[in-house]
Amino acid sequence: MTVTNPDFDKATQEMTLIPTEVVGLARKQIESLLDVQKEMMQALEDINHELFARAQKEAELASKFVGKLAGARSVPDATTTCQEWASKEMELLAADGRHMFEHGGKLLHASRRLFTESMQSAGH
Fold first, then answer.
1. Is 57 left (phi over 0), alpha (psi -120 to 50) or beta?
2. Residues 90-107: what's their mean pLDDT?
């Protein structure tokens, strides 16, 4: 037969219980972390969609370029086609740069939010 000591059981229960304040704080930190994670995942998803759209634009541009170049009847026509292609390519590259900074800003904002909230919850 096992003999139990009520004082020992009560002391064990008190030691294993987590104060409700700590649980509430942990819950807030987890919710905050999940919000930041969602924000970062959304930004990465946006980047993925834009990269895919960019690849499609590049394929369309290359296809049009090859078609126009094949149809060129003279060197000046071929030169004009190459210049048009280079101009459109530069436009796409400029747009890529803008998108890169926009998405980088979103990721930095989410990272900053994560750092700021973790510092605030730590009491700093």
1. alpha
2. 91
